Amino acid sequence: MRDQRTREMLDQDIRRWVDKYSRERSALIAILHNVHRKYSQVSAHAMEEIADYLGIHPVEVYGVATFYSFYNAEPKGKKIIRLCRTISCDMQGKRDLVYALEHRFGIRFGETTRDGKWTLEYTSCMGWCDQGPALFVNSKPYTSVTTERLDAILAE
Amino acid sequence: MGNLSNFESSRIPSSHLQQQIDATGKADVEIAINGKKLTVPYGTSILNATRLVGVKIPTLCSHDDLCVVGVCRLCLVEVEGQKTLQAACAYPITASINIRTHTTKVRKARRHVLDLMLRNHYGECYACRRNHKCQLQDRAKEHGVDFFRFGHIKEKRFEEDLSSYAVVRDPDKCVLCYRCVRTCIDMQEVGVLEFINRGFETQVSTFMNKPLAEVICVNCGQCINRCPTGALRANDPSDKVWRAIEDPEKHVIMQTAPAPRACIGEEFGLEAGHSLTRELNTAIRMIGFDQVFDTNFAADLTIMEESAELLTRLKDALVEGKDIPLPMITSCSPGWVKFCEHFYPDQLDHLSTCKSPQQMFGALLKTYYAEKSGINPANIVTVALMPCSAKKFECNRPEMQDSGHKDVDYGLTTREMAQMIKECGIHLPDLDREDFDHPLGLGSGAGLIFGATGGVMEAAIRTAYEIVTGREVPFEGLNVTPVRGMEGIREASILIENPVEEWKFLAGVELKVAIAHGTANAKKIMELVKAGKADYHFIEIMACPGGCLGGGGAPIPTNDEIRRKRAEALYKEDASLEVRKSHENAEIDQIYEEFLGEPLGERSHRLLHTHYTPRGKRIGD
Amino acid sequence: MTERKGPILFRPYTAFSGMRKAFEMGNAKVLATVKDAGLRGRGGAGFPTAMKWKFALDDISKDHQDYSKDRFIICNADEGEPGTFKDRVLLEEQLGLLLEGMLIAGYTIRASTGIIFLRGEYNYMWDQIKGTILRWRAEGMLGENLDGKGFDFDIHIRMGAGAYVCGEETALIESMEGYRGEPRNRPPFPVNAGFNKRPTVVNNVETLCQLPHILNEGADWFKKIGTEESTGSKLLSISGDCSKPGVYEVPFGVTIQAVLELAGAVGIKAVQVGGASGICLSAHEFDRTICFEDVPTGGSIIIFNTTRNMREVLVNFLGFFMEESCGQCTPCRYGTECLLDGILQLSRGECSDEYLSELLDLSDSMAIASKCGLGQSVANPFRSIIERFRGEIYHG
Question: Where among C264, C287, C305 does a domain terminate?
Fold first, then answer.
């Protein structure tokens, strides 16, 4: 029942975004971006819907979605923590954060908590090397993160 | 006529796969290859230019049928003044350049590329279906690879996908050359295979990584024909065929389609275009099959049924004024049928209800033949030699059991047949020639040319025209040349004059037909049909380029030239035959008299016709 | 906000003055000035900006006759090079300068559309950038007939989605067209067949930001800063072992040693110049200079003190490439993994010194065999780190 309603909402949203950005293939990234931001996942159904509007094959959407780091074709946590794995962040105490985060959620990097709330991932350079270690919670960046500050950041 | 201009703009391949050099009005360019000077047209690729001086640069991702990608990086050459090496396939010559094709730098880089491929290419050559037919192996041999410089993976990274009756994927052998992707998306426009993920994790996969049996694969097998390695192959049932042959209880019958006889010689080292029809009969008997029949017989039967169906539809539409779906479209190509079920589920009533010749034959073998020869149909095993991978799926369709048994038990590809023959130590071209068995072994030339694009149309025209007018088709030597050729979509029309009494209503009607081969071309025609803009009466569609002779079960390699030669072989053999019209096949008369009654009769309807399943494109979560 | 000082980008500036100057000069003169100034691309490769523009401007083949409607100026704001964050600072603090630079570039090559390709990581800046564009439109700084002679120009934003390789201009264009970010074969070049097959100029954020200043102050003034072949200034993103990491504007030709002093770095054994795709320098080379003639860089400077293990640095970089390679061409897709695996084997003592030579050879091949700059540059850190710190690769 609830799935049905979510799907209808998703269909409507996609339609809206397609109307907004165009039915050209060049609108694909923008549409995926919106789907992902709202639903934190690009489901198979969403990809088929988008493919139909853009006149391309669903597998092409899948190919694109799996290419870019910020889209998930598989369900992930409501909140995704992406920790910068660049050497500069390494040198500023990333290791402690890895330990703290894994310990806190009881999962490894690359995994999602069983309640579907949190996913831990690495990401490539975030562009905050002067204020490392840096991490994203969804798309919001946090810099100079310390284990002490984690609680406050995660509580947001 | 349908709007021809719609056909001209073929789908633009994914942008990066396209070479866009505008050569209009540009003068030829003088270049030097290994010091040798020559002049080439502006925009010629280095790869093509080097062929002019007798150098065949090693390639892997490049394929004559497909657009350029330049990803394998084997065809590297040195272009003077450039810091990096250039991929010869992807470099259009637009200025006077000096090219060196085998400097130490070049050879070392190519060797490294190969070393890297071999490091990640799982498996051993002798345990691979493509042993001796593998371009990676060829390249390794040419470059004298005699050890794994960077090691060799010992464990499988991926699981083999054995889900499909037609196509098996073994991603561990994939070198990511993009050929199957270009085939599936650009050439066939089916859209099953694509690159997914990124970096070292990049692989070729399906939508949501699903097994092939669960996606919209139409089983055409064109990806197999273009795969340079053993990463794609047909699902081979020959073990089961062997078991049936060994089983004394079983009466094993082979039917051979037209295309394999024109291609199988290539598997034994012959040039394309040598038919080995009767040598093949001998080999099949030597292997131990009990009977060998000619699928051309069933092709003739298809023509009888399909012509009758077409004329009935025309009559219903033109005389009775009924709302009958026209144009009628052929249904012999199982790849095309499944394509239509997925992409045009609301247009299925355009498809002729006729089963393909393979399936008609199967149904008759387990009824008519069983009865006539007094063999329990439960003990009959029917095997079909086909140039096709989709036939493997077709014979496993649940609706294909009208005889009360599985009408066709196994579909063997030309390649698999050749394998069985070789396993027996038989060199096919050396064999004596033997005839087919009878009464199901006589096929007309019309049935034979089913193997080439336009062949079904030509066969149908030869028969239908004569039924309607009482005269032979007005083409020299019965060769309906306007429907022949290799253009993706062809059209023709025949004016019906002075028809016989029964078909008087067709007087003055211009019978319009179209032919499409390759599913991308099918799509173009179907868009017209769907929009109600296709004013043809009859359309022939084949899923594979060139028709069956370019099928997913045909020998590898394939390209336009090879396909043309195979077609020539079929047309040549047709011209040499005495019976060249389906309705003049005496064994066809016999079976209608003894068993079927008349075309579209009750028994025909039950055994020779079928229905389709609207499948749609969606796979869902 | 940090008080920044610098010879060009961080000097005081009157908004819209560069753009007005451009309209006064006319596009031929703008092109000549930029050429005379010797401005080169700040993304790292250093291609002469005026030359790139000229190619696009000259592309009047039959498809592209309709000037302006069908050519594009793209701002490459997809800085993904590890250790680089100078574009983030420019976008946050000098957005007006950037928009004006795009406008000048568009005016010169007769493009009517500018697109900012913003990396997914900088998504948080979207509102700010979009807001500024809207304000400019409202104020008539973007839109139709900006110069009173019919020059139309507007700017849009396109988002990246987390792919380093999209910093490569053809991959960036692929991404904008809705494809996997796989670099294209060249030729054709973007200046002839770029976005939507149209003449397209892709310029770095920093390059574009230089333009208003160049027009205002003149080519001669600009040429006085920097070196003969590398005129003007360079933004450096400094991180690692130093007390004052951050973005600094320095004239080209500055020594590594001077940079280290600027950032308050002492006890340094190595500096990685140019990020993961750049080269590693050791202490005896700190007199080398940052410029296209000597050590070119897109701006990333990562500093390592004597406590750092350079194998870990190399392993980090190789892991980065293995993940960020687009995966289409063989040398890059398999090569990076092979190099990484080799280094790990060496560190475990599972293979010999000879194998390391094989790996160095392989990296050389990757440098000339890969399809795009990503694969081609893997050899830079690989060879430079191994040559300087071979001992650390084996143990420690």
Answer: C305
**Domain contains A37:** yes
Looking up residue C238, the CATH number of its domain turns out to be 3.10.20.600
Report ipTM for this prediction. 0.95
The answer to whether residue B619 neighbours chain A at the CB level (below 8 Å) is yes
Active-site residue B306, yes or no? Answer: yes
* C294 and C337 assigned to the same domain: no
C280 CA to centre of own chain: 18
- Specify the pLDDT at position B537: 96
Residues of chain C with C-beta less than 8 angstroms from the C-beta of B201: 323, 327
Q: Which chain B residues touch A58 with a CB distance below 8 Å?
A: 191, 207, 617, 619
pLDDT of residue A72: 87
**In whole angstroms, what is the distance from residue B446 CA to residue B579 CA?**
8
Give pLDDT tens digits for B442-470: 999 999 999 999 999 999 999 999 999 99
Distance CA B40, CA A26 (A): 36
Chain C closest CA to B202's CA: distance in Å?
A: 6
- Number of domains chain A contains: 2
DSSP string covering B140-186, please? HHHTT--S-TT----S-SS--B---SSEEE-GGG----SHHHIIIII
Q: Which of B90, B117, B197 sits opposite C330 (nearest CB)?
A: B117
Tell me if chain C has a CB within 8 Å of the CB of B109.
yes
Q: Does residue C130 form part of some domain?
A: yes
Bridging pattern class, strands B380-386 and B328-329: unpaired
CATH number of the domain enclosing C384: 1.20.1440.230
One domain for residues A63 and A87 = no
Cα B537 to Cα B345, B599, C22, C103, distances in angstroms: 20, 20, 65, 58
Beta-bridge partners for C116: C75, C157
Span of B2-6, C61-65, C112-116 with lowest mean pLDDT? B2-6
Domain that holds residue C175: 17-223
Interchain proximity B202–C330, CB inside 8 Å = no
- Residues A150, A89 within the same domain: yes
pTM: 0.95
Tell me the C-alpha distance between B501 and B507, whole Å.
10
For chains B and C, CB pairs below 8 A equal 135
Are both C82 and C134 inside the same structural domain? yes
**Which one of B391, B392, B523, B524 is the catalytic residue?**
B391
> What is the dihedral sign for C-alpha A96, A98, A99, A101?
positive
pLDDT tens-digit map of B286-341: 999 999 999 999 999 999 999 999 999 999 998 889 999 999 999 999 999 999 99
> Does A96 share its domain with A131?
yes
Any domain includes A72:
no
Matching residue, tokens 């699981």: B159
State pLDDT tens for residues B560-607.
999 999 999 999 999 999 999 999 999 999 999 999 999 999 999 999
Same domain, C324 and C243: no
